[in-house]
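Re: weekly structure request thread

Next one in the queue (90 aa):
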Amino acid sequence: MQTAELFTQPHNYAVVQLPERNYPGVVFQGDSLHCLLRDVMELQKLLKDGDLDELSASIEYLKNDLADIQKRYERVCHDRKIELPYVKSA
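Done, posted below.
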């Protein structure tokens, strides 16, 4: 039996190392994944409706949430001396 190593406390998502993978991954709870998809679908609706102010605000909110998750991922990689699987942008 293969097991994954949990690198963070499990909340709505967790950073884990899967067996035979070079880099850790981010695992989302099913309900959190559903909320993320729902948010993207709402962005589509706002675009279709032409509500650009609300669209811009919603994109900013989603971007900040994903950026926070990425920062946590990067911190875990740094603390464990794992090279990032991408080039970090400025």
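The two ends are 41 Å apart (CA to CA). The chain has one domain: 5-79.
Next request, please.
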